[in-house]
Structures are given as C-alpha cells and as structure tokens.
Amino acid sequence: MTRSDLAVEYGGSTQGGIVASRQSNMVFLFTDPGHGSQFGYVYDGFDDDGSAYYYTGAGQNGDQVLTHSNAPIARAAERGSAIHLFAADGFVAGTGTRRQRYIGEFIVDPNEPVQRMPALSTDGVKLRTVLVFRLLPSTEVSPQLVDAAGRSQIPREPFAVEVPTEINSAEFFETAGTADQVAVRRESDLVASFLSSNPDRDFSRWAINLPAEHTRLLTDVYDERERVLYEAKAIAGRSDLRMAVGQLYDYRRHIDVAELRCSVLLPTRPSADLRDLLADAGLGLVFREQDQFNFELAGTPRTHATAPRS
C-alpha cells in the first residue's frame, strides 16, 4: 500500500517516519533500508536472529529527545497503542510514490526500551546522539520480511558514547553502584554545583554500552578540555570511595581517550588514609570547601588510549 492509502484507512499523516493516528490509536513506523545511512540512521533493522528490530527516533539535528515526535513510541505501552512497522519497497508503477510493505506489529522491549547511539548531524561534521528503540515483534516475522526491513548496524561489542550532561540517567542508563534516592539527590546537587562553579569548562558525560549484558553505564562528569573523568559521591566515607575507585577503573577501560585522568568528586575532604588510597590508585581528588571546590590531587594520566574495538 502507499502512505496515502494508509492515512485514508486508519488516519494519521503522510509525512515523517513516526506517525501517530488518534483515529485508530495506532503508531505507524516507516523505514527505508535503501537510504538508512542518511542522517546517521544506520541502526534501523533487525538483529542477527530476527528477534528484535531497532528503530532510530526522529530529529535530524542535535541530540534527540524522548518528547515531541518520539513520544508516540516511548509512550505506546502506557497509551495502549499498537505499533506497526512498514518498509519502503518499490514504487507505484509510473510514479515516484513509494510503496510500503507491512512488516508486522511490535511492542517496545520493556527490559531494554531505548538507548543512545552516536550519529552525525545533517552537515556530516558534528557528532550527536540519537535514540534507538528496541522493538519486539508480536508474532514471528518471516525471513522474507526480515530481509525486506534490513539488518541493523548496531554494535555488538562494548563501546562508549560522549553525551550531554543533561542526559537523564533514569530514562536511558543504569548507573553503577546506585545508592538510595537521598544519596542520588545529594550526588546530583553536588555535580550541579561543580558544573556551575566552572562555567568556562566544557563538560559532558560518557554513556558506556555493554550489549552482551544488556547494560548501559553513565558516568557523572567529563571535562573535555582537561580530559578528566569525575565520579561523584554524596559521602566522603571509606565504602563510598572504594566504590568510586572501582567505578572509575571500570569506566576508563571502555573510554577511548588518550591520557585520560580520573578523579573523585566529594562534598567534604576525606581522611588522610583515604586521600592516600586515591593517590596510590592514581586518582585525583576534588572536594567542596565552603563555596569553592578544592582540586587537591590531579590524578595520573593514562599513558595510552584504549584500543578501538572492532
């Protein structure tokens, strides 16, 4: 069928890749395997065994968000909307109108609904992040339809993506060693204070994807200019610092930055023995002192970057 046929029958627009029809409480997704690389949309397609389909969200410039055009997918389960996928397949004879092949009905994977992936902006220069939804077919999809919809180029090996500081960890990522909500809020306040006290620096975060474990880790703060990765803790106690040391050592294995330094961000100065622990581990120390932050230990730069993963 064509998109016009679909709109007449079920409602919805004939424009855009994500179309929500209020008339029928359906969400229609359209993909074009022949033009998947445009705007960095190389992730659309089935995984190797055809058990899941990956669909890139809407938004051709800047980091994509879950609201606006992407909300119909993100909130489909909540709204009871059925998701139907179509793939462009040929043209109506004698015209430039694309035909749409129906692939099937899908649901958003409740265990791994969405992840962020790197992509280039429309100018082909600036790196941004896009949302990639993981969709599960409601019924088995035939091999012919899997081939028609294409295969995803989503990485199967661990990788890290630099993302804005505003990324909400609760929406996209698991944070290693998550504490109770009070501690999380205190850490968030500490990070916000640290960022605002250094307005001349460029800060971001790293999202570390571990596909084999279906896990994504999100670091706290990354200083792009100084190449320093910070892990914030709400309490300057031994158990918290030991956890911070482990997290930073885990994070930096996956972050491909030459001479990367790692540092712990605390609300107060820790004891002398804990400062020695950080120094022996080659980690830096920054702590809040009244209205300022004291950079007491710089941390030892890593001498080489992590080898790129194939």
TrEMBL record:
Top-level taxon in the UniProt lineage: Bacteria
InterPro entries noted in UniProt: SRA_ScoMcrA
Domain ScoMcrA-like SRA per the UniProt entry, residue ranges: 2-88
Name of the protein described by the UniProt record: ScoMcrA-like SRA domain-containing protein
Native source species: Agromyces tropicus
